[in-house]
Design a protein that fits this description.
Two copies of one chain form a homodimer.
Chain A (H helix, E strand, L loop, with lengths): L1 E5 L4 H12 L6 E6 L7 E4 L2 E4 L1 E2 L10 E4 L3 H13 L3 E4 L15 H4 L11 E2 L3 H13 L5 E9 L7 H15 L18 E2 L11 H14 L6 E4 L1 E2 L5 E10 L5 H8 L5 E3 L11 H4 L5 E8 L6 E9 L2 H17 L1
Parallel strand pairs in A: 1-2, 1-6, 2-5, 6-7, 7-8, 9-11, 14-15
Antiparallel strand pairs in A: 3-4, 9-13, 10-12, 13-16, 15-16
Helix pairs in contact in A: 1-9, 4-6, 4-9
Chain lengths: ~325, ~325
């Protein structure tokens, strides 16, 4: 199978290669694509080095599966060419996610959409939306969810490899007494945190928050689900966390919530009150699961439950979910 | 005026000295007190060095004002001696905060309690509760607050000077490739975050969360205010942030909320959507104000408003508020 990875040198592209390898995705021929900036570099895959090719329409000739992770502009420009070449296209950008005819897929939740989606791009959701829906979806079996309030703690990986590097470099500089000189982010990230860097829109929410809200509604098939999200960037490398308040249609117990989550594919319950051991980036980073804990009844609302989750932004939040989508598509 | 500072070598004690200096508190005689561990050290105050004295009952002889910041156990043991010596006692610990007869004071909110509080200790609230109430109190003039949901982003300073040092040391180690070796905190803090280190209680909330909830209710004079708080420790040095969802009794506009906050003493409105410039630890650290922004109507609830705040945990969250209380007490 000829597999193209667009944006192969980026933070997500790099992880896509690792996930394709570790899950033994049936790649017979890899087509690593990137912008001219990366021309001349190579990527390693299954023990071999592959020269990075410059992204072009022609690069998709004979490609069976194309995984895009190079931003919405490039997806809009090049995904049609990949489709025209007959490739199954999984797009990690926001370009098509909210198009009515485009499936927005988290395989554990709505993988069935892939069976009859016809000849369209399949969209990989926003990272924070994937992690959130992985937990909200099982909870829908407990009772109807009537309202959700979320605060995120988002790592720098969501802004790409250069942002992760900026966190490290700037932290080093801070420890040496240097003034920070932000480049990727608007504000210093070392030992700091700030409202997510996406532009603020008319409604006062930033673009990231609106993505998480709209995509969560779409993935769960609840277009009118009342939800409000605050997205915050924190000085962490690659796993996101979310504090989530879920209001149900009836009073639910902590046990019901735990039972609904425990053992669900891709979800790991970690709710150890005695040892104060709950989900955190260090546990989630590098792994496939979304960790969830701090499950407790909201003392301020009889029908609400509080919980806290953490998941690797680059894996389940991006590369892993994209490859899982590809697996379903090539097997169906 | 003879002023004792108990826990003078700690993170908060150090700031109390700086605040007493900068606000020209009428100190004629400083009595710096700490545990035997600090014996032999000195502290500087108004350009002079003072030997640190070991905390004892006798140390309060002739003391007019005693500011305690050495933990609840020491406050319970030594505050009575300070009171017996005739001192006005302001206690930064949690020892007495929820006692019905003890005033729990944020001067901008309920400083009037100090006029007739008689011969009792005055309690300085939990840092996150102070910052939260500084914003919720002005909002009470807009409409009745019916429910509050809070997620915190709490800096290491709340766990003391050694915790701040652990963040720096561990970060340095991480950058050199060392495995973290947590001592103050249970879990690694460098490039990580975790549920607040306070023990989890019967109700599933940790001790910090219960403090913030109960103290917010007491300070606002709303003992039954529905409130739920999630407290999270983040790799930041000395300013806390809080994402706050406030549900009112009626639909309120963003303009009403901004008008209620703008220009209030101790509150700084920073809500610059165009430049994505909102409260963050780097702005709040080292200053007296609680910064507030990200004010927007909750898209999931017609009567709710979202906002984000940041304040220096050591200043308004602790030392500054304590000295402000002392100022009111000595002037009344």
């Amino acid at each position: 199978m000829r597999v193209a990875v667009v944006g192969v040198t980026g933070a997500v592209g790099t992880e896509i290669l690792r996930v394709l390898e570790s899950r033994n995705f049936p790649v017979t021929d890899l087509v690593p694509l990137a912008s001219p900036r990366s021309a001349g570099t190579t990527v390693s895959f299954n023990g071999k080095e592959f020269p990075v090719q410059v992204l072009s329409r022609e690069a998709f000739d004979g490609v069976d599966v194309a995984l895009f992770s190079a931003g919405a502009t490039r997806s809009r420009e090049f995904a049609p060419a990949a489709m025209a070449a007959g490739a199954k296209v999984i797009d990690n950008s926001s370009a098509f996610r909210m198009d009515a005819e485009i499936p927005l897929v988290v395989p554990e939740i709505n993988g069935d959409l892939l069976a009859n989606c016809g000849n369209v791009v399949v969209a990989n959701p926003n990272c924070a939306a994937i992690l959130l829906t992985m937990v909200l979806h099982p909870l829908q079996s407990v009772a109807n969810i009537e309202r959700v309030v979320v605060s995120t703690y988002q790592s720098t990986s969501g802004a790409g490899a250069l942002a992760m590097e900026e966190l490290l470099t700037q932290t080093r500089g801070f420890l040496e007494g240097n003034e920070p000189d932000p480049a990727v982010f608007e504000w210093p990230i070392a030992f700091n945190l700030f409202s997510h860097n996406a532009s603020v829109e008319e409604d006062g929410y930033n673009g990231e928050e609106n993505k998480v809200m709209e995509e969560t509604q779409k993935i769960l098939g609840r277009p009118a689900l009342p939800i409000s999200v605050t997205c915050v960037r924190v000085p962490v490398l690659r796993a996101h966390c979310e504090a989530v308040n879920v209001e149900f249609s009836r009073e639910v117990t902590e046990e019901e919530v735990r039972a609904a989550l425990d053992g669900k594919p891709g979800v790991r319950l970690q709710d150890d009150r005695e040892n104060n051991h709950f989900p955190m980036p260090r546990s989630a980073a590098g792994g496939d699961d979304v960790w969830v804990g701090r499950i407790r009844r909201d003392k301020g609302h009889p029908r609400a439950i509080e919980l806290f989750l953490s998941g690797d932004q680059l894996l389940k939040g991006a590369a892993l979910n994209a490859v899982q989508i590809a697996e379903v598509m090539v097997n169906s």
